[in-house]
Amino acid sequence: MNKAVVTRFAPSPTGFLHIGGARTALFNWLFARHHGGKFLLRIEDTDRARSTDEAVAAIFDGLDWLGLRGDEPAVFQFERTPRHAEVANQLLASGHAYRCYATPEELAELREQQRAARQPMRYDGRWRDRAPEDAPAGAPFVIRIKAPREGETVIEDAVQGRVVVQNVELDDMILLRSDGTPTYMLAVVVDDHDMGVTHVIRGDDHLNNAFRQLSIIRAMGWEEPTYAHIPLIHGSDGAKLSKRHGALGVDAYRDEMGMLPEAVLNYLLRLGWGHGDEEILPVARAIELFDIAGVGRSPSRFDIKKLENLNGHYLREADDSRLAALVAPRVAARLGKTLDEKQSDILVQAMASLKPRAKNLNEIAEGAEFLFKNCPLDFDEKASALLDDSARALLAKTADVLQPVQFWTVEAIEDAIRRVAEDAGLGLGKVAQPLRAALTGRTVSPGIFDVLFLLGKEESLERLAAAGHATVG
Ligand code: GLU
User: Fold this and answer.
1) Which ligand 1 atom sits closest to the C-alpha of 24?
2) Where would I find the Aminoacyl-tRNA synthetase class I anticodon-binding domain in this sequence (predicted)?
Protein backbone atom coordinates (compact mmCIF):
# COMPACT_ATOMS: atom_id res chain seq x y z
CA MET A 1 0.00 0.00 0.00
CA ASN A 2 1.78 3.16 -1.10
CA LYS A 3 -0.51 5.81 0.34
CA ALA A 4 -0.71 6.04 4.12
CA VAL A 5 -3.82 4.26 5.28
CA VAL A 6 -6.57 6.30 6.95
CA THR A 7 -9.67 4.55 8.27
CA ARG A 8 -12.59 5.86 10.26
CA PHE A 9 -15.43 4.74 12.45
CA ALA A 10 -18.49 6.92 11.92
CA PRO A 11 -21.28 6.05 14.35
CA SER A 12 -24.59 7.87 14.50
CA PRO A 13 -25.11 8.81 18.15
CA THR A 14 -28.66 7.60 18.46
CA GLY A 15 -27.95 4.90 21.05
CA PHE A 16 -25.20 3.02 22.84
CA LEU A 17 -22.21 1.48 21.13
CA HIS A 18 -23.59 -1.90 20.20
CA ILE A 19 -21.59 -5.00 19.50
CA GLY A 20 -21.83 -4.63 15.70
CA GLY A 21 -20.57 -1.05 15.85
CA ALA A 22 -17.73 -2.12 18.11
CA ARG A 23 -16.69 -4.75 15.59
CA THR A 24 -16.72 -2.20 12.76
CA ALA A 25 -14.56 0.09 14.89
CA LEU A 26 -12.21 -2.78 15.68
CA PHE A 27 -11.73 -3.77 12.04
CA ASN A 28 -10.99 -0.16 11.09
CA TRP A 29 -8.60 0.24 14.00
CA LEU A 30 -6.78 -3.02 13.28
CA PHE A 31 -6.47 -2.24 9.61
CA ALA A 32 -4.95 1.15 10.36
CA ARG A 33 -2.60 -0.31 12.98
CA HIS A 34 -1.54 -3.14 10.70
CA HIS A 35 -0.56 -0.66 7.99
CA GLY A 36 0.91 1.92 10.32
CA GLY A 37 -1.86 4.32 9.34
CA LYS A 38 -4.41 6.43 11.16
CA PHE A 39 -7.76 5.56 12.69
CA LEU A 40 -10.21 8.44 12.97
CA LEU A 41 -13.56 8.92 14.62
CA ARG A 42 -16.51 10.83 13.26
CA ILE A 43 -19.75 11.36 15.08
CA GLU A 44 -22.55 11.51 12.51
CA ASP A 45 -24.89 13.76 14.41
CA THR A 46 -26.71 15.50 11.60
CA ASP A 47 -30.00 13.89 12.59
CA ARG A 48 -30.60 16.45 15.31
CA ALA A 49 -33.82 14.89 16.51
CA ARG A 50 -32.29 11.48 17.19
CA SER A 51 -28.72 12.36 18.21
CA THR A 52 -28.07 12.79 21.92
CA ASP A 53 -25.11 13.79 24.07
CA GLU A 54 -25.63 10.69 26.20
CA ALA A 55 -25.20 8.50 23.14
CA VAL A 56 -22.02 10.36 22.17
CA ALA A 57 -20.69 9.83 25.70
CA ALA A 58 -21.69 6.14 25.65
CA ILE A 59 -19.92 5.60 22.33
CA PHE A 60 -16.69 7.22 23.52
CA ASP A 61 -16.92 5.32 26.78
CA GLY A 62 -17.35 2.00 25.00
CA LEU A 63 -14.51 2.69 22.56
CA ASP A 64 -12.23 3.80 25.39
CA TRP A 65 -12.92 0.65 27.33
CA LEU A 66 -11.99 -1.42 24.29
CA GLY A 67 -8.90 0.71 23.71
CA LEU A 68 -10.08 1.81 20.26
CA ARG A 69 -9.18 5.46 20.50
CA GLY A 70 -9.00 7.75 17.52
CA ASP A 71 -5.62 9.11 16.51
CA GLU A 72 -7.06 12.62 16.29
CA PRO A 73 -9.90 14.37 18.09
CA ALA A 74 -13.26 13.14 16.83
CA VAL A 75 -14.94 15.06 14.02
CA PHE A 76 -18.54 16.11 14.66
CA GLN A 77 -20.39 16.07 11.38
CA PHE A 78 -23.00 18.66 12.27
CA GLU A 79 -20.32 21.30 12.88
CA ARG A 80 -19.20 20.89 9.28
CA THR A 81 -22.53 21.87 7.72
CA PRO A 82 -21.09 24.99 6.03
CA ARG A 83 -18.39 22.93 4.39
CA HIS A 84 -20.96 20.43 3.10
CA ALA A 85 -23.02 23.28 1.65
CA GLU A 86 -19.92 24.70 0.03
CA VAL A 87 -19.31 21.44 -1.83
CA ALA A 88 -22.94 21.32 -3.00
CA ASN A 89 -22.54 24.82 -4.39
CA GLN A 90 -19.27 23.87 -6.03
CA LEU A 91 -21.04 21.02 -7.80
CA LEU A 92 -23.73 23.44 -8.85
CA ALA A 93 -21.17 25.82 -10.28
CA SER A 94 -19.35 23.05 -12.16
CA GLY A 95 -22.58 21.79 -13.70
CA HIS A 96 -22.56 18.49 -11.80
CA ALA A 97 -25.59 19.50 -9.81
CA TYR A 98 -28.70 21.58 -10.39
CA ARG A 99 -31.45 23.41 -8.60
CA CYS A 100 -34.72 21.57 -8.45
CA TYR A 101 -37.90 23.54 -7.77
CA ALA A 102 -40.30 20.62 -7.69
CA THR A 103 -42.82 21.21 -4.92
CA PRO A 104 -43.71 18.57 -2.32
CA GLU A 105 -47.14 18.26 -3.96
CA GLU A 106 -45.61 17.62 -7.37
CA LEU A 107 -43.29 14.98 -5.94
CA ALA A 108 -46.15 13.30 -4.10
CA GLU A 109 -48.06 13.15 -7.35
CA LEU A 110 -45.04 11.68 -9.14
CA ARG A 111 -44.71 8.99 -6.48
CA GLU A 112 -48.41 8.22 -6.79
CA GLN A 113 -48.14 7.77 -10.56
CA GLN A 114 -45.10 5.53 -10.19
CA ARG A 115 -46.83 3.46 -7.56
CA ALA A 116 -49.91 3.03 -9.76
CA ALA A 117 -47.75 2.04 -12.72
CA ARG A 118 -45.72 -0.29 -10.47
CA GLN A 119 -42.56 1.54 -11.39
CA PRO A 120 -39.68 2.03 -8.99
CA MET A 121 -40.18 5.25 -7.10
CA ARG A 122 -37.52 7.75 -7.90
CA TYR A 123 -37.19 11.37 -8.86
CA ASP A 124 -37.56 11.77 -12.62
CA GLY A 125 -35.02 14.54 -13.18
CA ARG A 126 -37.62 17.08 -14.27
CA TRP A 127 -35.38 20.05 -13.45
CA ARG A 128 -32.16 18.46 -14.63
CA ASP A 129 -32.06 20.12 -18.02
CA ARG A 130 -34.35 23.09 -17.53
CA ALA A 131 -32.99 26.50 -18.38
CA PRO A 132 -32.17 28.69 -15.35
CA GLU A 133 -34.69 31.28 -16.68
CA ASP A 134 -37.48 28.80 -15.94
CA ALA A 135 -36.77 29.02 -12.24
CA PRO A 136 -39.74 30.47 -10.36
CA ALA A 137 -38.48 33.65 -8.78
CA GLY A 138 -37.88 33.42 -5.05
CA ALA A 139 -39.25 29.87 -4.85
CA PRO A 140 -37.49 27.36 -2.55
CA PHE A 141 -35.26 24.81 -4.23
CA VAL A 142 -33.07 21.84 -3.40
CA ILE A 143 -29.73 21.04 -4.99
CA ARG A 144 -29.60 17.65 -6.70
CA ILE A 145 -26.67 15.75 -8.16
CA LYS A 146 -26.64 15.01 -11.86
CA ALA A 147 -26.17 11.29 -11.50
CA PRO A 148 -24.88 9.35 -14.50
CA ARG A 149 -27.80 7.96 -16.54
CA GLU A 150 -26.12 5.55 -18.87
CA GLY A 151 -23.80 2.69 -18.24
CA GLU A 152 -23.09 1.09 -14.96
CA THR A 153 -21.19 1.81 -11.78
CA VAL A 154 -18.81 -0.83 -10.54
CA ILE A 155 -17.38 -1.18 -7.08
CA GLU A 156 -14.51 -3.56 -6.49
CA ASP A 157 -15.35 -4.13 -2.87
CA ALA A 158 -12.55 -5.62 -0.79
CA VAL A 159 -15.00 -7.97 0.91
CA GLN A 160 -17.97 -8.31 -1.44
CA GLY A 161 -15.94 -8.51 -4.64
CA ARG A 162 -17.18 -6.87 -7.84
CA VAL A 163 -20.58 -5.25 -7.35
CA VAL A 164 -22.36 -3.62 -10.28
CA VAL A 165 -25.33 -1.25 -10.39
CA GLN A 166 -27.00 0.01 -13.55
CA ASN A 167 -26.90 3.79 -13.52
CA VAL A 168 -30.57 4.10 -14.47
CA GLU A 169 -31.23 2.87 -10.96
CA LEU A 170 -29.47 5.81 -9.37
CA ASP A 171 -31.64 8.89 -9.25
CA ASP A 172 -30.60 12.49 -8.89
CA MET A 173 -30.50 12.53 -5.13
CA ILE A 174 -30.69 15.66 -3.07
CA LEU A 175 -27.42 17.13 -1.79
CA LEU A 176 -28.72 20.26 -0.12
CA ARG A 177 -32.27 20.63 1.19
CA SER A 178 -34.34 23.74 0.64
CA ASP A 179 -33.48 24.96 4.14
CA GLY A 180 -29.79 24.77 3.20
CA THR A 181 -29.00 21.67 5.27
CA PRO A 182 -26.88 18.98 3.65
CA THR A 183 -28.10 15.42 3.25
CA TYR A 184 -26.39 12.56 4.98
CA MET A 185 -25.07 11.19 1.68
CA LEU A 186 -23.27 14.45 0.91
CA ALA A 187 -21.94 14.88 4.43
CA VAL A 188 -20.37 11.41 4.51
CA VAL A 189 -18.55 11.92 1.23
CA VAL A 190 -17.25 15.39 2.05
CA ASP A 191 -16.08 14.34 5.50
CA ASP A 192 -14.39 11.19 4.26
CA HIS A 193 -12.58 13.24 1.65
CA ASP A 194 -11.53 16.02 4.00
CA MET A 195 -10.39 13.53 6.62
CA GLY A 196 -8.27 11.82 3.98
CA VAL A 197 -10.00 8.47 4.42
CA THR A 198 -8.44 5.86 2.14
CA HIS A 199 -10.44 2.80 3.27
CA VAL A 200 -14.12 2.78 4.11
CA ILE A 201 -14.74 -0.32 6.20
CA ARG A 202 -18.35 -0.54 7.39
CA GLY A 203 -21.45 -2.71 7.59
CA ASP A 204 -22.82 -4.05 4.31
CA ASP A 205 -26.10 -2.27 5.00
CA HIS A 206 -24.23 0.71 3.52
CA LEU A 207 -23.28 -0.96 0.26
CA ASN A 208 -26.14 0.66 -1.66
CA ASN A 209 -25.12 4.05 -0.35
CA ALA A 210 -21.62 3.55 -1.73
CA PHE A 211 -22.90 3.80 -5.31
CA ARG A 212 -24.61 7.09 -4.60
CA GLN A 213 -21.63 8.35 -2.68
CA LEU A 214 -19.37 7.48 -5.58
CA SER A 215 -21.33 9.71 -7.95
CA ILE A 216 -20.54 12.67 -5.69
CA ILE A 217 -16.88 11.67 -5.39
CA ARG A 218 -16.55 11.37 -9.16
CA ALA A 219 -18.37 14.64 -9.81
CA MET A 220 -15.86 16.34 -7.52
CA GLY A 221 -12.97 14.53 -9.19
CA TRP A 222 -11.83 13.23 -5.82
CA GLU A 223 -9.86 10.07 -5.27
CA GLU A 224 -12.08 7.07 -4.60
CA PRO A 225 -11.56 5.19 -1.35
CA THR A 226 -11.33 1.43 -1.19
CA TYR A 227 -14.61 0.05 0.08
CA ALA A 228 -14.90 -2.96 2.36
CA HIS A 229 -18.48 -3.76 3.32
CA ILE A 230 -18.52 -6.32 6.07
CA PRO A 231 -21.47 -8.68 6.58
CA LEU A 232 -23.71 -7.96 9.51
CA ILE A 233 -23.77 -10.05 12.65
CA HIS A 234 -26.62 -12.48 13.09
CA GLY A 235 -27.96 -14.15 16.20
CA SER A 236 -27.15 -17.78 16.98
CA ASP A 237 -30.42 -18.75 15.27
CA GLY A 238 -29.41 -17.01 12.05
CA ALA A 239 -31.88 -14.13 12.42
CA LYS A 240 -30.74 -10.52 12.41
CA LEU A 241 -29.03 -9.73 15.70
CA SER A 242 -31.38 -8.29 18.26
CA LYS A 243 -31.35 -7.65 21.99
CA ARG A 244 -32.50 -11.18 22.61
CA HIS A 245 -29.27 -12.47 21.05
CA GLY A 246 -26.95 -10.21 22.97
CA ALA A 247 -27.06 -7.10 20.76
CA LEU A 248 -26.54 -5.02 23.82
CA GLY A 249 -24.44 -1.98 24.46
CA VAL A 250 -20.78 -2.69 25.00
CA ASP A 251 -21.30 -1.37 28.55
CA ALA A 252 -23.55 -4.34 29.31
CA TYR A 253 -20.69 -6.72 28.54
CA ARG A 254 -18.46 -4.76 30.88
CA ASP A 255 -20.89 -3.97 33.70
CA GLU A 256 -23.59 -6.62 33.80
CA MET A 257 -21.72 -9.56 32.32
CA GLY A 258 -18.31 -8.86 33.81
CA MET A 259 -16.28 -9.37 30.65
CA LEU A 260 -12.73 -8.17 30.07
CA PRO A 261 -12.18 -5.84 27.11
CA GLU A 262 -9.47 -8.06 25.63
CA ALA A 263 -11.92 -10.98 25.56
CA VAL A 264 -14.59 -8.88 23.82
CA LEU A 265 -12.00 -7.66 21.30
CA ASN A 266 -10.76 -11.17 20.59
CA TYR A 267 -14.31 -12.39 20.21
CA LEU A 268 -15.34 -9.56 17.89
CA LEU A 269 -12.26 -10.12 15.78
CA ARG A 270 -13.11 -13.78 15.30
CA LEU A 271 -16.68 -12.81 14.47
CA GLY A 272 -16.31 -12.44 10.74
CA TRP A 273 -12.54 -12.62 10.43
CA GLY A 274 -10.29 -15.61 10.64
CA HIS A 275 -6.72 -16.74 10.41
CA GLY A 276 -6.68 -20.49 10.14
CA ASP A 277 -7.82 -22.09 13.37
CA GLU A 278 -6.28 -19.52 15.66
CA GLU A 279 -8.90 -18.68 18.29
CA ILE A 280 -6.81 -16.90 20.88
CA LEU A 281 -5.67 -13.68 19.28
CA PRO A 282 -4.48 -11.03 21.68
CA VAL A 283 -4.41 -7.53 20.25
CA ALA A 284 -0.73 -7.54 19.27
CA ARG A 285 -1.20 -10.73 17.31
CA ALA A 286 -4.38 -9.36 15.73
CA ILE A 287 -2.54 -6.25 14.55
CA GLU A 288 0.15 -8.41 13.03
CA LEU A 289 -2.29 -10.62 11.13
CA PHE A 290 -5.30 -8.48 10.29
CA ASP A 291 -6.17 -8.05 6.66
CA ILE A 292 -9.41 -7.51 4.79
CA ALA A 293 -8.88 -10.72 2.83
CA GLY A 294 -9.59 -12.63 6.03
CA VAL A 295 -13.08 -11.13 6.34
CA GLY A 296 -15.73 -13.62 5.28
CA ARG A 297 -18.64 -12.81 2.99
CA SER A 298 -21.41 -14.46 4.92
CA PRO A 299 -22.96 -13.12 8.10
CA SER A 300 -21.36 -14.39 11.26
CA ARG A 301 -23.38 -15.76 14.14
CA PHE A 302 -23.09 -14.36 17.58
CA ASP A 303 -22.29 -17.06 20.11
CA ILE A 304 -22.26 -15.98 23.72
CA LYS A 305 -20.71 -19.30 24.82
CA LYS A 306 -17.62 -18.64 22.72
CA LEU A 307 -17.34 -15.18 24.19
CA GLU A 308 -17.59 -16.62 27.71
CA ASN A 309 -14.91 -19.18 26.98
CA LEU A 310 -12.58 -16.50 25.68
CA ASN A 311 -13.35 -14.41 28.71
CA GLY A 312 -12.44 -17.34 30.93
CA HIS A 313 -9.14 -17.59 29.11
CA TYR A 314 -8.32 -13.91 29.53
CA LEU A 315 -9.35 -13.98 33.19
CA ARG A 316 -6.82 -16.71 33.80
CA GLU A 317 -4.17 -14.68 32.01
CA ALA A 318 -4.99 -11.43 33.75
CA ASP A 319 -2.83 -9.89 36.43
CA ASP A 320 -4.22 -10.57 39.92
CA SER A 321 -4.10 -6.98 41.16
CA ARG A 322 -5.95 -5.76 38.10
CA LEU A 323 -8.57 -8.46 38.47
CA ALA A 324 -9.02 -7.78 42.17
CA ALA A 325 -9.59 -4.10 41.44
CA LEU A 326 -12.30 -5.05 38.94
CA VAL A 327 -13.86 -7.58 41.26
CA ALA A 328 -13.78 -5.46 44.45
CA PRO A 329 -16.82 -3.27 43.63
CA ARG A 330 -18.78 -6.39 42.74
CA VAL A 331 -17.89 -8.05 46.02
CA ALA A 332 -18.77 -4.83 47.85
CA ALA A 333 -22.15 -4.72 46.12
CA ARG A 334 -22.87 -8.30 47.20
CA LEU A 335 -21.81 -7.66 50.79
CA GLY A 336 -23.33 -4.20 51.06
CA LYS A 337 -20.03 -2.83 52.39
CA THR A 338 -16.75 -1.74 50.86
CA LEU A 339 -13.58 -3.71 51.50
CA ASP A 340 -10.90 -2.27 53.75
CA GLU A 341 -7.23 -2.35 52.87
CA LYS A 342 -6.53 -5.70 54.48
CA GLN A 343 -9.52 -7.28 52.77
CA SER A 344 -8.43 -5.81 49.45
CA ASP A 345 -5.05 -7.49 49.90
CA ILE A 346 -6.74 -10.79 50.64
CA LEU A 347 -8.81 -10.37 47.50
CA VAL A 348 -5.64 -10.02 45.40
CA GLN A 349 -4.22 -13.18 46.98
CA ALA A 350 -7.48 -15.02 46.38
CA MET A 351 -7.43 -14.41 42.62
CA ALA A 352 -5.05 -17.26 41.89
CA SER A 353 -7.48 -19.79 43.35
CA LEU A 354 -10.68 -18.08 42.18
CA LYS A 355 -9.94 -17.29 38.56
CA PRO A 356 -9.24 -20.74 37.11
CA ARG A 357 -12.89 -21.72 37.17
CA ALA A 358 -14.57 -18.40 36.47
CA LYS A 359 -16.10 -17.26 33.19
CA ASN A 360 -16.71 -13.69 34.27
CA LEU A 361 -16.02 -11.18 37.02
CA ASN A 362 -19.37 -11.84 38.67
CA GLU A 363 -18.46 -15.47 39.22
CA ILE A 364 -15.17 -14.42 40.78
CA ALA A 365 -17.01 -11.99 43.05
CA GLU A 366 -19.46 -14.67 44.04
CA GLY A 367 -16.60 -17.05 44.80
CA ALA A 368 -14.79 -14.40 46.86
CA GLU A 369 -17.74 -13.38 48.95
CA PHE A 370 -17.24 -15.96 51.70
CA LEU A 371 -13.88 -14.44 52.57
CA PHE A 372 -15.45 -11.26 53.91
CA LYS A 373 -18.62 -12.50 55.53
CA ASN A 374 -19.13 -12.02 59.21
CA CYS A 375 -19.19 -14.97 61.53
CA PRO A 376 -21.54 -16.82 62.05
CA LEU A 377 -22.03 -17.55 58.38
CA ASP A 378 -25.28 -18.31 56.73
CA PHE A 379 -25.11 -21.87 55.51
CA ASP A 380 -26.82 -22.91 52.33
CA GLU A 381 -28.93 -26.03 52.38
CA LYS A 382 -26.30 -28.44 51.16
CA ALA A 383 -23.70 -27.04 53.55
CA SER A 384 -26.09 -27.35 56.52
CA ALA A 385 -26.83 -30.94 55.59
CA LEU A 386 -23.13 -31.75 55.82
CA LEU A 387 -22.74 -30.38 59.33
CA ASP A 388 -24.13 -33.24 61.35
CA ASP A 389 -22.82 -34.42 64.74
CA SER A 390 -19.97 -36.50 63.41
CA ALA A 391 -18.90 -33.64 61.17
CA ARG A 392 -18.85 -31.31 64.16
CA ALA A 393 -16.68 -33.71 66.09
CA LEU A 394 -14.31 -33.76 63.14
CA LEU A 395 -14.31 -29.94 63.01
CA ALA A 396 -13.38 -29.81 66.68
CA LYS A 397 -10.45 -32.16 66.05
CA THR A 398 -9.39 -30.13 63.06
CA ALA A 399 -9.43 -26.98 65.13
CA ASP A 400 -7.23 -28.70 67.74
CA VAL A 401 -4.70 -29.65 65.12
CA LEU A 402 -4.70 -26.22 63.48
CA GLN A 403 -4.45 -24.31 66.74
CA PRO A 404 -0.72 -24.92 67.29
CA VAL A 405 0.28 -24.24 63.66
CA GLN A 406 2.65 -21.33 63.93
CA PHE A 407 3.47 -20.38 60.40
CA TRP A 408 0.21 -20.19 58.51
CA THR A 409 1.41 -21.34 55.10
CA VAL A 410 -0.48 -23.46 52.60
CA GLU A 411 2.07 -26.26 53.20
CA ALA A 412 1.69 -26.19 56.98
CA ILE A 413 -2.08 -26.18 56.62
CA GLU A 414 -1.97 -29.10 54.23
CA ASP A 415 0.22 -31.07 56.65
CA ALA A 416 -2.19 -30.47 59.50
CA ILE A 417 -5.29 -31.43 57.54
CA ARG A 418 -3.66 -34.58 56.21
CA ARG A 419 -2.86 -35.55 59.77
CA VAL A 420 -6.50 -35.07 60.79
CA ALA A 421 -7.58 -37.32 57.95
CA GLU A 422 -5.05 -40.01 58.81
CA ASP A 423 -5.93 -40.02 62.49
CA ALA A 424 -9.62 -40.30 61.69
CA GLY A 425 -8.96 -42.98 59.09
CA LEU A 426 -10.77 -40.88 56.49
CA GLY A 427 -9.94 -39.78 52.97
CA LEU A 428 -8.93 -36.16 52.54
CA GLY A 429 -12.18 -35.40 50.72
CA LYS A 430 -14.25 -36.58 53.66
CA VAL A 431 -12.45 -34.10 55.91
CA ALA A 432 -12.51 -31.32 53.38
CA GLN A 433 -16.28 -31.44 52.83
CA PRO A 434 -17.49 -30.42 56.29
CA LEU A 435 -14.52 -28.13 56.63
CA ARG A 436 -15.50 -26.30 53.48
CA ALA A 437 -19.09 -26.06 54.65
CA ALA A 438 -17.99 -24.67 58.02
CA LEU A 439 -15.57 -22.15 56.55
CA THR A 440 -17.50 -20.90 53.54
CA GLY A 441 -21.14 -21.80 54.22
CA ARG A 442 -21.15 -23.47 50.80
CA THR A 443 -20.17 -26.78 49.24
CA VAL A 444 -18.25 -25.22 46.36
CA SER A 445 -15.15 -23.10 46.91
CA PRO A 446 -11.48 -22.89 46.00
CA GLY A 447 -9.24 -25.69 47.30
CA ILE A 448 -9.62 -26.16 51.04
CA PHE A 449 -5.98 -25.36 51.90
CA ASP A 450 -6.31 -22.10 49.98
CA VAL A 451 -9.53 -21.32 51.79
CA LEU A 452 -7.86 -21.76 55.17
CA PHE A 453 -4.82 -19.81 54.08
CA LEU A 454 -6.82 -16.89 52.69
CA LEU A 455 -9.06 -16.67 55.73
CA GLY A 456 -6.07 -16.64 58.06
CA LYS A 457 -5.68 -18.62 61.24
CA GLU A 458 -7.80 -16.51 63.53
CA GLU A 459 -10.79 -16.24 61.24
CA SER A 460 -10.58 -19.93 60.31
CA LEU A 461 -10.64 -21.03 63.94
CA GLU A 462 -13.47 -18.65 64.69
CA ARG A 463 -15.54 -20.06 61.87
CA LEU A 464 -14.80 -23.63 62.93
CA ALA A 465 -15.87 -22.86 66.47
CA ALA A 466 -19.00 -21.10 65.31
CA ALA A 467 -19.98 -23.98 63.01
CA GLY A 468 -19.35 -26.41 65.86
CA HIS A 469 -21.71 -24.56 68.17
CA ALA A 470 -24.29 -23.24 65.81
CA THR A 471 -27.57 -25.02 65.48
CA VAL A 472 -27.66 -25.52 61.80
CA GLY A 473 -29.83 -27.59 59.54
N1 GLU B 1 -23.29 6.63 10.52
C2 GLU B 1 -23.43 5.37 9.87
C3 GLU B 1 -23.94 4.34 10.85
O4 GLU B 1 -23.85 4.55 12.05
C5 GLU B 1 -22.13 4.88 9.26
C6 GLU B 1 -21.83 5.56 7.99
C7 GLU B 1 -20.59 5.09 7.31
O8 GLU B 1 -19.81 4.32 7.91
O9 GLU B 1 -20.35 5.51 6.18
O10 GLU B 1 -24.44 3.32 10.44
Assistant:
1) 8
2) 324-467
